[in-house]
């Protein structure tokens, strides 16, 4: 039960990142590269402070560090660029659909045991997402470039999660990844073909909240849960994030769900429950 509750808390944090990022870009007027750079710095400083407090320092080395840093950068900036035009819920659907494929591929390549009930849960949850995304002829076309950015972000997050399973100390590993990625992110921000200007206060606060709390602390918790979850269950659990993100869009971005959403939400969460019950 503790594993289920902590996993649910982490998924809420992941969904909050979609809502916060979309709010920062669409409502606060933040540009995506600045949002991503501030998010990295805020996450790095928060995790460094926690590592100093509880571990006495930050160990920047470790297995998979290069892969962790590069995949984190791909996720952070792909995520921000995608949300220039994608709604919070739609972006989360594309993101974690890609994560699902990436992590199950990792589980298969690693020859991880995937019980039949877990495969059934994955198929049920993925089917709910596919039905929710299926075009009805009533909505606008999905922006291809932004959707492609979110696919890259999903690959980045999937690889980041797989690498995290080898982290001996979740807090230290997450702090090191953020601290090493932050200066690289700053360089990318400087090289971006956008005017460098003072960011809006509200957008900066949203980026700090996303970096320090729902990213930094959320990812540290995620790293600590990954060894117990395994790649298969971790991938399926993340399929609940789009549903939570759409609910967040309803509360904070005035995205009103319909009966189609409610049915799909039930299917997705049912599939996640099946997967988490698999021994």
Tell me about this structure:
The protein has helices at residues 2-26, 32-55, 65-82, 88-109, 116-133, 144-164, 170-191, 201-237, 240-252, 259-277. It has 279 residues and is mostly helical. The chain is globular and about 45 Å long. The protein starts with a helix and ends with a helix. The chain is 78% helix and 0% strand. The protein has one domain.
Short descriptors:
EmrE-like, 10 helices, globular, 279 residues, 0% strand, mainly alpha, 78% helix
Count of distinct strands: 0
Measured by DSSP, the beta-strand proportion falls in under 5%
The chain-level structural class is mainly alpha
Q: How much is the average pLDDT?
A: 83
Query: What separation lies between the terminal Cα atoms?
Result: 13 Å
In short:
This protein has 279 residues and is mainly alpha-helical. The protein has one domain (2-113, 140-227).
Topology:
Elements: H1 2-26, H2 32-55, H3 65-82, H4 88-109, H5 116-133, H6 144-164, H7 170-191, H8 201-237, H9 240-252, H10 259-277
């Amino acid at each position: 039960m503790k594993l289920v509750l902590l996993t649910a808390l982490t998924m809420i944090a992941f969904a909050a990142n979609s809502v916060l990022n979309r709010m920062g870009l669409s409502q606060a007027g933040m540009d995506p590269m600045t949002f991503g750079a501030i998010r990295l710095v805020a996450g790095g400083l928060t995790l460094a402070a926690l590592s100093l407090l509880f571990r006495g320092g930050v160990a920047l080395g470790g297995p998979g560090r290069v892969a962790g840093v590069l995949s984190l950068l791909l996720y952070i900036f792909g995520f921000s660029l995608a949300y220039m035009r994608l709604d919070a819920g739609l972006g989360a659907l594309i993101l974690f659909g890609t994560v699902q494929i990436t992590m199950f591929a990792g589980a298969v390549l690693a020859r991880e045991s995937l019980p039949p009930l877990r495969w059934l849960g994955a198929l049920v949850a993925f089917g709910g997402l596919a039905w929710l995304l299926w075009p009805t002829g009533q909505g606008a076309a999905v922006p291809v470039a932004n959707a492609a950015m979110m696919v890259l972000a999903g690959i980045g997050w999937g690889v980041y999660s797989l690498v995290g399973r080898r982290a001996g100390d979740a807090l230290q590993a997450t702090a090191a990844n953020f601290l090493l990625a932050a200066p690289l992110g700053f360089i990318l921000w400087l090289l971006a073909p956008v005017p460098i200007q003072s960011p809006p206060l509200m957008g900066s606060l949203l980026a700090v909240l996303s970096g320090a709390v729902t990213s930094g602390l959320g990812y540290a918790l995620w790293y600590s849960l990954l060894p117990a979850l395994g790649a298969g269950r971790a991938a399926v659990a993340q399929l609940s994030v789009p549903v939570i993100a759409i609910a967040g869009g309803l509360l904070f971005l005035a995205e009103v769900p319909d009966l189609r959403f409610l049915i799909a939400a039930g299917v997705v969460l049912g599939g996640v429950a099946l997967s988490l019950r698999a021994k």
